[in-house]
Amino acid sequence: MDAVNHQFKLAARPVGLPKPSDWEHTEAPVPEIGDGEVLVKVLYLSLDPAMRGWMNDTRSYIPPVGIGEVMRALGAGEVIASKHPDVAVGDHVTGLLGVQEYAVANGAAVMKVDTAVAPLSVYLGTLGMTGMTAYFGLLDIGRPQEGETVVVSGAAGAVGGIVGQIAKLKGARAVGIAGGAEKCAYVVQELGFDACIDYKAQGLDVGLGEHCPKGIDVYFDNVGGEILDAALARLARHARVIICGAISQYNATEAVRGPSNYLSLLVNHASMTGFVVSDYGARLGEAAQEMGAWYAAGKLVSREDVAAGFESFPETLLRLFRGQNTGKLVLKVGD
Amino acid sequence: MDAVNHQFKLAARPVGLPKPSDWEHTEAPVPEIGDGEVLVKVLYLSLDPAMRGWMNDTRSYIPPVGIGEVMRALGAGEVIASKHPDVAVGDHVTGLLGVQEYAVANGAAVMKVDTAVAPLSVYLGTLGMTGMTAYFGLLDIGRPQEGETVVVSGAAGAVGGIVGQIAKLKGARAVGIAGGAEKCAYVVQELGFDACIDYKAQGLDVGLGEHCPKGIDVYFDNVGGEILDAALARLARHARVIICGAISQYNATEAVRGPSNYLSLLVNHASMTGFVVSDYGARLGEAAQEMGAWYAAGKLVSREDVAAGFESFPETLLRLFRGQNTGKLVLKVGD
């Protein structure tokens, strides 16, 4: 092939928000594939808060991206060459494709998806790792019961918006926390949450008091910091707190802010449990089935916030940390 | 009766460590009892870190002690008058007797104990709420498996020393954390822990790395602060953290220090769960039975640190917060 493969490589470990010089925008020939491999033309890249963590040289659930390596990213695309028996040219797949226009992957490491059921980008959101994250975090750890109150931070974001919808499908009340009137309107009117607290407009403690008069039974945290503390102060007895992320802390240049109100766990016999979706690798099928059925029945609103232009990657990624996305942020890379 | 009832009442809400002027040492006549009540001559008072929390005017699992009220305390004593059919003069009982020499209680609210099985003071320690706290926190929340590593802070303290012993009885490894060589020697040599890290002599992170090469499976926290953070940094996958107390924070005049390393829960799929022993009110019988059997078989070392002199209460209580007790701190009030 004569096409050029544009890539973003990690040039330096960021301090605080990633800046342009932390990236190297390079060109390479589109590689040949070996036995068992496939070549994927990347069409969408998933932009996720977790990517910030992958850029740090710290021990975590996955090794950091090395300096000079193509930035790790989930993506969706079309197979344009295959030497794997189970994957054919023309198949649509998702996987860890990296921030590049063409990706070589083992055919067993990508997942085939059906664009007749849902548009390709949905497989990065509601029907992808984002949706699975919401599903397992809420249902396996949070275990909401009918009539319980589920509070979700980052409710207008990719994971948060799905968490509240699943909570409603399971008969719980869903209260979102988001920044700004527009996001809150989206959370209530489009996603169907019972309420959404605009933490920029209203004291969180007042809002939580108003919308959770019996306390919070399940709190799904995507943000950390003062929002986590405010939720801890309002826990009901036997509450379950799910630590899915801490976007407010990922670019901190000082120590992470720990939750001062953690002793609320003690007085309320409550728990705080963390996870990453890869912990549920063996059970993704269950989630795909139930989420797929809800989606097909029109019971899950799936909204992607689609940015365009491969070269905008560094700037588009920052929208996550500035709270500028509504729904799942994806970067459209090709047609 | 002509005897005088000396009492310590809460005179002011302490800021930081309780000071002498926060207490009022008063005398009152020994009260008459009504139907269903018993009069107990207090022989031992239990001094517990939780008492500091009861002195604050904050919403918690139990209402605060009011200004002018006798300070709340668990105690053990002898019944000297009874108008309750199930309790006789001469019975030994434990209960919330308060910091006073004579207590009136409902006969149904005290627990009869057998001083032929164990000395009275043991019913405030290993066979009392202290032991039950260790038992349920470790076994119900921590659920240690054979061969797992259990780390306990405050290991030379009342609860911590029992936690490690129960961990050993259940086939786990027990690693203590305590302040000072003498305490650590006690924890290993007398209580039988596998190891004890002297956090005053050695970097905690180094000590935990040395004694927990595969990480911490169960961490039982009595102290909070930097020790909690050090333990969080060393969690194994699926670790269980038990929040029993936070003695390092109880006298803080600034905000409680939250655990900066709480995101270790996320990367390790770990949980942090709090409790107070009263949550297990309905199950105290199970614990009393198993703990009693271990004690009778000589499998549980029970050490009380006995201070004497009712009037020394304010100063003796401070020993807890200065780390000056080894084993269960009790105040001997009478003979």
What does this structure look like?
2 copies of one chain form a homodimer. With 335 residues, the first copy, chain A, is α/β, with parallel strands linked by helices. Chain A folds into 2 domains: 4-125 and 303-332, Quinone Oxidoreductase, Chain A, domain 1 (Alpha-Beta Complex); 129-278, 3-Layer(aba) Sandwich (Rossmann fold). The first copy, chain A, contains 9 helices and 15 strands. The first copy, chain A, has helices at 50-54, 129-142, 158-169, 181-190, 204-211, 225-232, 264-267, 284-296, 313-321, and strands spanning 4-10, 23-29, 37-46, 74-82, 92-96, 102-106, 111-113, 149-153, 173-178, 195-198, 216-221, 235-243, 271-274, 304-308, 328-332. In chain A, strands 3, 4, 5, 6, 7, 14 and 15 form a 7-stranded mixed sheet that branches. Chain A has a 6-stranded parallel sheet with strand order 10-9-8-11-12-13, with helices on both faces. Chain A has a two-stranded antiparallel ribbon with strand order 1-2. In chain A, α2 packs across α3 (158-169). β13 of chain A pairs antiparallel with β13 of chain B.
